[in-house]
Write a structure and sequence with these properties.
The chain has about 425 residues and is α/β, with parallel strands linked by helices. It folds into 2 domains: about 170 residues, Phosphoglycerate kinase, N-terminal domain (Rossmann fold, 3-Layer(aba) Sandwich), CATH 3.40.50; about 200 residues, Rossmann fold (3-Layer(aba) Sandwich). Helix content is about 35%, strand content about 15%. A 6-stranded parallel sheet has the order 3-4-2-1-5-6, sandwiched between helices. Strands 10-8-7-15-16-17 form a 6-stranded parallel sheet, with helices on both faces. A 3-stranded antiparallel sheet has the order 12-11-14.
Length: about 425
């Protein structure tokens, strides 16, 4: 899965111990103040956003959704006479110099913000250096300053107190509008707000919306409540599946992780991606899930990783071991069964594609699931990452209730974890 992972490694006991006893209580998050709840006139708002947008080879933004989703919080400050200093990461530069690694620079984001906001958007060539300090001090009300990628500074990952103190001094108010990194404890998410003693610490409208949709869907679902979980590895989503089995009426499994379940049942999987060290956990999930856990009935296979390969549909647990056959998508029987379950749902949470949706014809399962969600008229939460990319690609994003901007963060919310970066914000 693209984006963050909930990666559970070798210790199966630790996996089991981390499953929440009462998932609905774990996800109940006290209401936090938003940027609308604080006075900002004449003040500098230090706002952490998630501008981790995709760029092409010419460093042009190919999807600006994470930028546009941050606009309401930014405009709220500007419209009320404040000024905004924006922080974000982009990729994983690992402390490299922005002059040497332009593909991680936030310069393209500054240019796009300037187009969208129609007001001065300044750009600092560093995060806590002389340029950032000077431009932050000179910033006028009604203007925006975007600091360079916070991950160019090693203090970001470490949560270094000196680094955090410099950033904290720039703002009169702290605002977290970066849902995509709310599950992380990096400097700009935790150390900086903790350093802003006595100053308001609030969430932005995007974080408020994401938490409201995801937590309410889990804690107070309309039933039937159906979860769809796909992706490559069972190990990425062990705790998510277990948590959802405790609270959902049905959990539908797709993607390459389904082949680990097939092998655990004693089936044949050909060259399909499997995790042989997770077979016992797959068996445990099947035993605990009972009739709630639905696995594919059939599989669409190919003998090479390309759309023009030889193809066949076989029973889910009977992918031939002879030849180069590999499962790439759920088959038509599974599509029909899953679609029927989804169409009768009142709440749907979807995280992870059903197959290799980027490569027709193996996009059929993922597309059918997306269409069934739309047809259900259920409260529908698309959990970021590849699921969000798929529903955007199919042109259905505006037909579901909510598309999350955070893959890893939405996964951890579905797992039942609390976020330190949210807990430290001011309560209403």
């Amino acid at each position: 899965m693209k984006g963050g992972k909930v990666l559970v490694k070798d210790c199966d006991d630790r996996c089991r111990e981390s499953w929440p006893e009462d998932p609905t209580k774990v996800l109940s998050i006290m209401a936090k103040k938003t940027i609308a709840d604080v006075q900002v006139s004449g003040l500098a708002v230090l706002m952490r956003c998630d501008f981790n947008v995709p760029l092409d080879d010419q460093l042009q933004i190919t999807d600006d959704r994470r930028i546009t989703e941050a606009l309401p919080s930014i405009k709220s400050v500007l419209d009320r006479g404040g000024r905004v200093i924006l922080m974000s990461h982009l990729g994983r530069p690992e402390g490299k110099d922005p002059a040497e690694d332009a593909k991680f620079s936030l310069k393209p984001v500054a240019a796009r913000l300037n187009e969208l906001l129609g007001c001065p958007v300044h750009f600092a060539s560093d995060t806590v250096g002389d340029d950032a300090k000077a431009k932050a001090a000179a910033l006028k009300n009604g203007e925006v300053l975007l600091l360079e990628n916070v991950r160019f500074n090693k203090g970001e990952k470490k949560g270094d107190p000196e680094y955090a103190a410099v950033l904290a001094a720039m703002g009169d108010v702290y605002c977290n509008d970066a849902f995509g990194t709310c599950h992380r404890t990096e400097g700009s998410m935790v150390a900086v707000p903790n350093a802003m003693v006595g100053k308001p610490k609030v969430c932005g409208f995007l974080v408020e919306k994401e938490i409201r949709f995801l937590s309410d869907a889990i804690a107070h679902p309309q039933r039937p409540f159906v979860a769809i979980v796909g992706g490559k590895k069972v190990s990425d989503k062990i705790n998510v599946i277990q948590n959802l089995l405790n609270i959902c009426d049905k959990v539908l499994i797709g993607g390459a992780m389904a082949y680990t379940f097939s092998l655990a049942k004693g089936g044949t999987v050909g060259r399909s991606l499997v995790e042989k060290d997770k077979l016992d956990l797959a068996r445990e999930l099947m035993a605990s899930g009972g009739e709630k856990l639905l696995l594919p009935l059939d599989t669409h296979c190919g003998d090479d990783f390309k759309g023009s390969c030889n193809k066949q549909v076989v029973k889910a647990d009977h992918i031939p071991d002879e030849g180069n056959w590999e499962g790439f998508d759920i088959g038509p029987e599974t599509i029909a069964r899953y679609s029927d379950v989804i169409k009768s749902a009142k709440t749907v949470v979807w995280n992870g594609p059903m197959g290799v949706f980027e490569m027709p014809p193996f996009d059929a399962g993922t597309k059918a699931v997306a269409e069934a969600i739309v047809a259900s008229h259920a409260v529908s939460i698309i959990g970021g990452g590849d699921s969000a990319a798929a529903i955007q690609e199919f042109g259905l994003a505006d037909k579901v209730t909510h598309v999350s901007t955070g893959g890893g963060a939405s996964l951890e919310m579905l797992e039942g974890k609390k976020f330190v970066a949210v807990e430290l914000l001011d309560d209403k």
